[in-house]
Amino acid sequence: DFLFFWGAVFLVTTTLVAFLKKENQELIPAKEETKGITDTYRLLFSIIKMPAVLTFCLLILTSKVGFSAADAVTGLKLVEEGVPKEHLALLAVPMVPLQIILPLIISKYTAGPKPLNTFYKAMPYRLLFGLEFAFLVWWAPKVKHEGGFPLYYYAAVVLSYALHQITLYSMYVAIMAFNAKVSDPLIGGTYMTLLNTVSNLGGNWPSTVALWLVDPLTVKECEGAQGHHTCATAAAAEV
């Protein structure tokens, strides 16, 4: 119902914008050096062949591997340990004002000549939060009681998530600022879109791999199993 309602709102508002919003004809934007889709892809290919861009793309494609498990799996593991989904969803509410304020604060530090310095400084702290999240998952069954989880556990989760958001947004804003800074103004839109797409891909593929690896890397024990059942595979666990 929630997704259906907001999906309908999204469709209605975007349709209204398409029909009712008129372009300002007075302001003629600077034309990029592209004529069509084929030219655009040729241009993108020529950009990505540049040694500096190629090296940078390799860096941002692999820079988030260390955070993949913490980012993608923590919430699922907390639910597995008994933390109600609705409680986890409610814990996301205090994060919203933080997510609005953080880019405004961080942008002051990324506006200088070296925006990636913020990215580098935030990285080790974000890696440490991987250990913090692992501790939260390990701690969950220890503090669980019949009534659920104590308030101090939820407070620890909220604080951990809030501090994690600071490191996450420091890296996100820094990479966006760097992409904007290095993009050639003549082909700014195409250049920035390429770098931002690679940056997004660099965050998504490690999370996908982390989720895929959860099952084979999880140690399982069978209760009351006959014979030598290790539950190592999905088929064995089902038996």
From TrEMBL:
GO biological process per UniProt: acetyl-CoA transmembrane transport
Residues that span the membrane, as ranges: 6-22, 43-67, 87-111, 123-140, 152-175
Keywords, alphabetical: Membrane, Transmembrane, Transmembrane helix
Main location: membrane
Annotated compartments: Membrane
A molecular-function term among this protein's GO annotations: acetyl-CoA transmembrane transporter activity
Membrane-topology descriptor: Multi-pass membrane protein
GO cellular component, one term: membrane
Highest taxon of source: Eukaryota
PANTHER family registered for this protein in UniProt: ACETYL-COENZYME A TRANSPORTER 1, SOLUTE CARRIER FAMILY 33 ACETYL-COA TRANSPORTER -RELATED
Record-given protein name: ACATN protein
Protein source organism: Sylvia atricapilla (blackcap)
Gene name, Swiss-Prot/TrEMBL: Slc33a1
